[in-house]
Design brief:
The complex is a heterodimer of chains A (about 240) and B (about 750).
Chain A (H helix, E strand, L loop, with lengths): L1 H14 L3 H21 L7 H6 L12 E4 L6 H11 L6 H7 L6 E6 L2 E10 L15 E9 L8 H16 L3 E7 L3 H9 L3 E6 L11 E7 L6 H9 L1
Helix pairs in contact in A: 1-2, 6-8
Chain B lengths: L13 H15 L3 H13 L7 H13 L3 H14 L4 H13 L3 H14 L4 H13 L3 H14 L4 H14 L2 H15 L9 H16 L3 H10 L7 H15 L2 H14 L4 H6 L10 H11 L5 H9 L2 H18 L4 H4 L7 H23 L14 H15 L3 H14 L4 H13 L3 H14 L4 H13 L3 H8 L9 H7 L3 H13 L3 H20 L2 H10 L2 H12 L5 H20 L17 H40 L14 H5 L4 H13 L6 H14 L2 H14 L6 H10 L9 H16 L10 H4 L1
Helix pairs in contact in B: 1-2, 2-3, 3-4, 3-5, 4-5, 5-6, 6-7, 7-8, 8-9, 9-10, 10-11, 11-12, 11-13, 12-13, 13-14, 16-17, 17-18, 18-20, 20-21, 21-22, 21-23, 22-23, 23-24, 24-25, 25-26, 25-28, 28-29, 28-32, 29-32, 32-35, 32-36, 35-36, 36-37, 37-38, 37-39
Classes of the chains: A alpha+beta (about 240), B mainly alpha (about 750).
Chain lengths: ~240, ~750
């Protein structure tokens, strides 16, 4: 542990970073050293070490995730992604509308590969019934999905953040969406992002089992600085 | 036209003489309508009605207004009335030049010079015609006359140097260039321009070509600071040092060049080891890996130098980075390595191991590293790579499995669909391949490359209409894609289309395309004309000389060779069928068809013919419409190009002398020694049939050199033996040569493989 302390103080002095960062870093450092003390070897449990061998630099490969617009030229990509990701199939009208959707619909790219898509529309007034719906203009997420191999890479978050930022910008008061009742992963994801289940729609889906769905909603609190609110949502 | 001088009109009355001056001025300002009016005014005076130069000028003006026939009539009349006028002769020459009759034009200019031997303009026009026709000696002499007339103008000396260069008089060319350079030498450093640099580099090129390397090195060192294009200067200097055996200097320049651009393999090949700091290429590359880590070549070269475990380790690292980065071209990038079979196996083994490891890694990512160390797309690129590798091994089953895995992993990767199409193509499933390519295309309809690939795959599967529909997305609107692509000299399209048409026996249409390709090549040769003046004016001499050399053997290009082979094959087929009556379509001879089937097929063919005919009529109408539009646009721009004979598919499919047509396509290739077995085979068959045995034997020799184990050779050798008797009628020298040649290939080797005769291969 003397070693740890030495390293810690060394960091504090040499880097001169804000205390909060130092604490975070030292936690990581501590755990490395702890592992080292336990096993005697530093990288014994890194399959990555095997993967690269030794002579390559840089070791890290840059990964870029970004959103891009949907045009008539890449519409088929959205179609194929949705076919693969969702058990529900959408008609041509759905896809043709996306061309006019602007920021409401986006493709997500992982190192230039199209791996996910998000499609929203303004909630139709007819769907607004009694409470528990909140008042005002609401946005409905029709689809938001990412290919299985690319999950847990913050691509869903990227798309959701985009939607929330859009809401701030356009003055929506809430975002709603449906999730199939057995889709634990999706429920988790949205709950972590501040969504709440507000009702259950029985027999929501026509051709898939289970046919019931939860209706989720997240209220949008207008802020001057929309960035901080989206960050909070992502956290 | 400044050269059309004002004398000789002494026979004109004073008023008309003044008008004639105005006529020249109007012509030079391209005010053709006014010029024409003035010409008519002069001629309306009975005293001047037969004035030759006015008539000629009127003709020239008319030619610029697109009235070709009247133009010729007037100019000829003018010439008749004034045979001793250089103006008339010059104009007649210009008219011929406009119609691409350069030889005629040349004669006219020579006549014109008889009456005005120092006319600069005419001399220049003469030189242009001479170089266009490659009358190199004449060109040199004319250029000398021009330079001697205006010795202070350096561009004339420059042109003279080029003429000497082309004539092979290199040392004189170097001396002329030296004088030329002196004329251009700037007083102050900051006045130095690109043009001067070009002079220096051209002189350097002449020195290297003449083999005076010492002189060249000295020259390049002395004037180094005046040259903008340092890269070619240094590259040439390396060449000189290597020729002189001075590897030390060469190495030091090459090291600099490699630091500047580490991806040029040629630099590495020119290095001589040991050099400072490295005893071998391997060591050199290892040093560079550290010094320039982003460069790829220093990592790639060791893959060709190492073997066994060392290779395994290196290629593994190379691949691992490539997969993680997601380089679509990784397979082609290291394709050269696969030439060694063991290396190919090692690559596959290592790729499979990397696949296993990255699967494990992604299944349980280590907690402390970022997840990006092995990006999620890594597995996709490994599948894609494995598919390519299996395809190369012709193991299409496994290739297909891998590519399907890639598509399942990431169903939006266009390259994977393209590659699936390619595997299908290799399996011979052309329809499926075309459909698959179309699917790939649908994912990114803005990609022109995939669009053209799709069109190509569709043509391979004889889907004419679908190809047309797909390709029209990127061609000009309002014009059929097939026409638009032909107009744009899109050779791949024309070749693929001609092949497809030949496959379905639409010979006429196929030949139309092939003749168009031939015309495009003629156009390419004609297009030089503008460069003769332009390049000398702009002093881009090195590229000008390169252009002239390229044009000299432009038909060596694979597209011409392919077109010529295809055309000759069609003509050979046609000549086999002749002289049968026109209804014979070869069906009667086919015993596998019943009478009813034959009838059906004939009906089908008839329908296809009718359809083709209708299409053609429409096409012609469209073409005509287009031509008139073009003519309007061009109206007073330049004289309309000489009208070419229309290519009518029906006529083309029934040539009077198919063998002559075949040899029309092949003739330009005879002297070029094309390294293609197919090409030599077609030459052999055509000329054998024509009875031109000397050419056939030559083709046979080339075939033997290209592919000595080819099964067809036996039959060809036998055919040659059969004709050996006919050699006796030839001149002795030719006969002896032929017999010797034949002896070297036929009598030494056994004339076996008779069963693989060429008649079945058709």
């Amino acid at each position: 542990m003397t070693l740890c302390i030495f390293l810690l103080s060394n960091l504090t002095v040499s880097l001169g970073l804000r205390w909060i960062t130092i604490v975070e870093r030292s936690m990581a450092l501590l755990s490395i050293i702890f592992r080292f003390l336990l096993s005697g070897r530093l990288i014994v449990d890194f399959p990555g070490g095997l993967f690269f061998g030794n002579s390559f630099s840089p070791k890290m490969v840059q990964v870029q995730t970004e959103l891009g617009g949907i045009t008539k030229h890449n519409l088929k990509m959205v179609k194929r992604l949705n076919q693969v990701i969702f058990p529900v199939s959408y008609n041509d009208q759905f896809y043709n509308d996306l061309l006019k959707a602007g920021d409401m619909a986006k493709l997500a790219f992982y190192n230039d590969l199209a791996v996910g898509a998000v499609c929203c529309r303004p909630e139709t007034p007819a769907a607004v019934t009694a409470p528990p719906f909140s008042e005002g203009k609401r946005l409905y997420i029709m689809t938001l999905g990412c290919l299985a191999p690319y999950r847990r890479h913050k691509i869903g978050t990227l798309m959701l953040e985009h939607v929330l930022a859009l809401c701030q910008k356009e003055g929506y008061t809430a975002v709603t969406l449906h999730v199939q009742v057995n889709n634990e992963a999706a429920l988790d994801f949205y709950k972590k992002s501040g969504f709440e289940v507000i009702s259950k729609s029985d027999q929501y889906y026509k051709r898939i089992e289970p046919a019931d769905a939860f209706l989720l909603e997240k209220k949008i609190v207008p802020t001057k600085n929309s960035d901080s609110s989206t960050n909070k949502a992502a956290a | 036209m400044t050269g059309v001088a004002e004398n000789h009109n002494s026979t004109l009355p004073p008023k008309e003489a003044a008008l004639f001056k105005r006529l020249l001025k109007m012509y030079e300002q391209k005010q053709y309508k006014t010029a024409l009016k003035i010409a008519k005014q002069i001629l309306s005076n009975p005293k001047a009605a037969d004035h030759g130069e006015t008539l000629a000028m009127k003709g020239l003006t008319l030619s610029y207004m697109g009235r070709k026939e009247e133009a010729y009539e007037d100019v000829r009349r003018g010439l008749k009335h004034d045979l001793k006028s250089y103006v008339c002769w010059h104009i007649y020459g210009l008219l011929q030049k406009g119609d691409k009759k350069y030889e005629e034009a040349m004669k006219c200019y020579v006549n014109a010079l008889k009456f005005d031997k120092d006319n600069l303009q005419i001399l220049r026009d003469l030189a242009t015609s001479q170089i266009q026709l490659r009358d190199l000696e004449g060109f040199r002499d004319t250029r000398y006359r021009i330079a001697a007339l205006r010795p202070s103008q350096r561009s004339h000396w420059l042109a003279y140097a080029v003429a000497l260069h082309l004539q092979g008089e290199l040392s004189l060319a170097v001396r002329v260039m030296e004088e030329c350079r002196k004329l251009a030498h700037p007083e102050r450093m900051d006045e130095c321009d690109v043009e001067y640099g070009e002079y220096i580099l051209y002189q350097l090129e002449l020195m290297v070509e003449s083999g005076s390397y010492n002189e060249a090195v000295e020259h390049s060192l002395r004037y180094e600071s005046y040259v903008y294009d340092q890269l070619s200067l240094l590259e040439t200097r390396v060449k000189c040092y290597l020729a002189l055996g001075n590897s030390k200097e060469a190495n030091s320049i090459l090291s600099g060049l490699i630091t500047r651009n580490p991806e040029n393999w040629a630099y590495y090949r020119q290095l001589t080891f040991p050099l400072d700091g490295a005893n071998s290429l391997m060591e050199f590359c290892l040093e560079l890996q550290k010094a320039i880590p982003h460069a790829k070549t220093p990592f790639k070269i060791p893959l060709t130098l190492t073997e066994g475990d060392e290779f395994r380790r290196r290629v593994r690292n190379y691949l691992a980075l490539g997969f993680r980065k997601g380089l679509p071209a990784l397979f082609n990038d290291i394709k050269k390595v696969f030439e060694v079979p063991e290396k190919s196996d090692i690559v596959e083994e290592e790729t499979l191991r990397l696949l296993e490891e990255s699967r494990q890694y992604i299944a349980n990512p280590p907690p402390l590293n970022g997840p990006d160390e092995v990006p999620a797309s890594t597995i996709l690129w490994i599948y894609y790579f494995l598919a390519q590798h299996r395809d190369m091994k012709k193991d299409y089953q496994r290739a297909m499995e891998y590519v399907e895995m890639a598509i399942e992993h990431t169903p939006t990767l266009v390259e994977a669909y393209c590659f699936k199409a390619k595997i299908l193509k290799h399996m011979g499933k052309l329809q499926d391949a075309a459909n698959c390519m179309e699917e790939a295309q649908s994912f990114d309809t803005s990609d022109r490359f995939i669009n053209y690939k799709t069109g190509k795959y569709m043509l391979r599967a004889n889907m004419f209409d679908r190809a047309e529909a797909i390709l029209s997305r990127f061609t000009r609107e309002g014009v059929k894609a097939s026409e638009s692509l032909c107009d744009m000299q899109c050779f791949w399209y024309m070749i693929e289309s001609a092949r497809a048409l030949k496959r379905v026996n639409r010979f006429g249409e196929s030949l139309r395309l092939l003749h168009l390709i031939d015309r495009h090549f003629m156009d390419i040769v004609d297009d030089q004309l503008d460069f003769h003046a332009y390049c000398l004016r702009k002093s881009t001499i090195r590229s000008y000389v390169a252009l002239l050399r390229m044009e000299d053997s432009v038909r060596i290009h694979k597209f011409y060779v392919q077109a010529a082979v295809l055309a000759a094959e069609i003509y050979l087929q046609i000549s086999d069928k002749q002289p049968n009556d026109s209804d014979d379509d070869g069906l009667d001879k086919d015993p596998s068809l019943s009478a009813a089937e034959k009838k059906k097929l004939r009906n089908k063919q008839r329908k296809a013919k009718k359809k083709a005919e209708e299409e053609r009529v429409q096409q012609e109408a469209a073409d005509k419409a287009k031509v008139t539009v073009k003519a309007k646009v061009k109206d007073d721009d330049e004289p309309a190009a000489a009208q070419k004979e229309d290519l009518v598919p029906e006529k083309l499919a029934r040539p009077d002398d198919p063998l002559e047509q075949a040899s029309y396509f092949l003739r330009p290739l005879l002297s070029l020694d094309i390294p293609s077995f197919d090409c030599q085979r077609v030459i052999f068959e055509t000329y054998h049939k024509k009875g031109k045995y000397a050419v056939a034997v030559q083709a046979l020799l080339r075939m033997v050199a290209l592919d000595p184990s080819n099964g067809k050779l036996g039959e060809y050798k036998r055919m040659c033996l059969e004709i050996e008797d006919t050699f006796n009628t030839m001149p002795d020298a030719v006969r002896d040569g032929l017999q010797q040649a034949l002896a070297s290939v036929v009598h030494s080797g056994e004339a076996s493989n008779f069963q693989n005769g060429f008649s079945e291969d058709r």
